[in-house]
Amino acid sequence: MFSAKSLFQEILDDDESFRLFCSIAAGGESQGGWENGRISALVPRSERAMAPKIARHGADEDKHARIFDALLKKRGLTPVPVPPETDYTMLLERAGIGLAHEKLKRDEPLTVRDVIVYLAHSRVTEQRASEQMEMLRRYFGDHPEVGRAVRMISGDEDNHLAYAHEELLRFAATGHGWLIQRTLRECALAEIRVYRDVSLAVTALMGRVLGWSRARSAALAAGVHAVYAYERLAGWHRMVSLRMPERRNALGGPATPAPEYA
């Protein structure tokens, strides 16, 4: 019988699967860093007070990418190209979720609506990130190789989620509630589809790298489909609710530095 802990332990123990995992993670974090950096530069004048927080969000994502690269380097490994079918960030963009890269590459100020779309995208995707990192922290927070990285990234993802809640509630209080709820729902329903597709792709790749049997790969794929069925039916609701977080002003101040790896 396999569990999330045993599966990740298997990935962690094998150099090639660990290399693939860290490369995929670093690629997504790096992309998120670029996106937040551009948004912070283009935020409209009326919302300039948000710019340092958005920049902090981007700096955290860049830091996470460096952490994954450092974990590879510590083991004497180099990154591999990210297979396009596993590129969660780009697949979300192609699904029309968040702000298009074409828009972010232009030097035109964003609108308040654009900022709300960005925050709704963050609310949904950071829910996923926070949950995944909480799981890893529970199982591997004390691991001698990856424990520090897991704890730091998990704390950052919790901060990002708190920030998205707080800012969306601020906009809701100024009359944008309907837009926020509609955008959150669109984002959540698209995200669960993309997450399913990426999970299936990663499962297939890991199965080939680790030599899983056809039966084991099929069982894991069935598990992915079961999660999607639950999320499509009811689970997506957890991604669209808003509540004032215990961590207020979670992205105020500078980003914390990445841990050093010998």
How would you explain this protein's 3D organization?
It is a single chain. This protein is an all-alpha fold and 262 residues long. Helix content is 71%, strand content 0%. It has eight helices and no strands. The model has no long low-confidence stretch (mean pLDDT 95).
Write a concise keyword list for the protein shown above.
mainly alpha; 262 residues
Low-pLDDT residue spans: none
Structural class estimated from helices and strands = mainly alpha
**Shape call:** globular
Spatial gap, N to C terminus: 36 Å
* Number of E-type strands: 0
| Major β-sheet profile | none
Please indicate the percent range of residues in DSSP E strands (runs of 2 or more): under 5%
Summed up, the helix count is 8
Q: In percent, how helical is the residue content? A: over 70%
The helix/strand series, from N terminus to C terminus, equals HHHHHHHH
Radius of gyration: 18 Å
User: How much is the average pLDDT?
Assistant: 95
How do the strands and helices of this protein lay out in sequence?
Elements: H1 4-13, H2 15-42, H3 51-74, H4 88-94, H5 101-105, H6 112-140, H7 147-210, H8 214-233
Task: Give a short summary of the structure.
This protein is mostly helical.
